């Protein structure tokens, strides 16, 4: 099982510091969700964990080794990342896209193998994309397109998957569809999943572990029921809310205060 930690991590662009002296350890075999206000550094942190951004200070350790010193293909055999809003070349089919997940295993003189094909077929089956393998990715719905990209990460056959806002631009049905898929990958295969989400209720429902980022550091972390409180939401997001218990899942449910067209609008909160 893969392990991923960050030690004294400082990230930024030019003179601007985004993350400052941060320490985290991603729990193995669990779903971890990064939360925090826009611009707090969630996506920057995720990119650094995948070695897409060089730290200004500190390091990221993958399986006991400094990720900065690992060969690119070795990183890709251990860790897959799905960035926010990936762009697909025009006309590329689902099958052609997912095949790219085998790149870390390819060599100049090595032919496409049975193992490569089996990995691609398994990834397509796991994401329910087998019926769409010949369809251009840019012709798919948002939810189908996201599943195709997730299939690409699965074809890498890594135990660790990082996803930056995988539900962005999706309607509610497709958000649940994608998150259910990730939940199943964790439940059935024991994959460690780290993702950025904005919806606190979905984060609470699907995460085993939540990390809240504020002021360039970890503000709080732990199980959703221990972490998502009205005090945390106020301190991190500058928003007043009530926290109730989700009547179906028993997880924290955030009810924001605000001015809506509600029969209780005049009742003092």
From TrEMBL:
It comes from the Bacteria. It is found in: Cell membrane. The keyword Ribosomal protein does not apply. Residues 4-240 form the ABC transporter domain. Pfam families: ABC_tran. Coiled coil: none annotated. GO terms for cellular component: plasma membrane. Signal peptide: none annotated. GO terms for molecular function: ATP binding; ATP hydrolysis activity. It is a peripheral membrane protein. InterPro entries: AAA+_ATPase, ABC_transporter-like_ATP-bd, ABC_transporter-like_CS, P-loop_NTPase, Siderophore_ABC-ATPase. GO terms for biological process: iron ion transport. Keywords: ATP-binding, Cell membrane, Ion transport, Iron, Iron transport, Membrane, Nucleotide-binding, Transport. This is ABC transporter ATP-binding protein.
């Amino acid at each position: 099982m893969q392990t991923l930690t960050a030690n004294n991590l400082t990230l930024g662009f030019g003179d601007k510091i985004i993350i400052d002296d941060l320490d985290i350890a991603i729990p193995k075999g669990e779903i971890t969700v990064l939360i925090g206000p826009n611009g707090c550094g969630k996506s920057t942190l995720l990119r650094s964990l995948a070695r897409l951004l060089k730290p200004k200070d500190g390091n990221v350790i993958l399986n006991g080794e400094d990720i900065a010193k690992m060969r690119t293909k070795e990183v890709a055999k251990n860790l897959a990342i799905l960035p926010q809003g990936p762009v697909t070349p025009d006309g590329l089919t689902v099958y052609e896209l997912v095949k790219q997940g085998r790149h870390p295993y390819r060599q100049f003189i090595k032919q496409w193998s049975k193992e490569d094909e089996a990995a691609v077929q398994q990834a397509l089956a796991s994401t329910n994309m087998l019926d769409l393998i010949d369809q251009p990715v840019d012709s798919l719905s948002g939810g189908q397109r996201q599943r195709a990209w997730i299939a690409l990460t699965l074809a890498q056959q890594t135990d660790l998957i990082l996803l930056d806002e995988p539900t962005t631009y999706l309607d509610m049905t497709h958000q649940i569809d994608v998150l259910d898929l990730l939940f199943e990958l964790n439940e059935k295969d024991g994959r460690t999943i780290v993702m950025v989400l904005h919806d606190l209720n979905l984060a609470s429902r699907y995460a085993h572990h939540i990390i809240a980022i504020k002021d360039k550091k970890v503000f709080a972390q732990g199980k959703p029921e221990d972490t998502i409180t009205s005090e945390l939401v106020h301190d991190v997001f500058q928003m007043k809310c009530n926290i109730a218990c989700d009547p179906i899942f028993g997880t924290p449910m955030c009810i924001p205060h605000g001015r809506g067209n509600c029969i209780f609008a005049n009742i003092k909160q």
